[in-house]
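Pasting as-is:
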Amino acid sequence: MDMAAAPAGKARGRRVWLILALAVVLVAGVAVLTWPRVTTVKTMTATEHYGEDGGHVAVLKHVHAPLGTDHWEIVMGRDPSGGYGHGVRLDATGVDASSVVVEWGKDDATIVYGSGHRLTVPARFFTGGR
């Protein structure tokens, strides 16, 4: 067995481990930089009572991702944190979060933009555990 071949093999093995470690760090860095951050802007409590389900809310969230995929989302349901419910993504350009309101009706909820645009969501989509 050649004694010079053994150190060369060890050096090659170290290079492989170094490359793998750098790849893991790179992938983790990209994941952290592109992971969206979510900020709750406001919570709007329902003025209607929907059957046996009580305490419905609409939570307006700002979703920010460093790669330019910012958007707004309203989550309607019983979870006051907005972590679970019926999501409605608002992709309108120039959405002023302070101008978005929800009008609660007997059979639906209507999202009203400051511009006057309206989007109606039937109650069956945000009641009953959805």
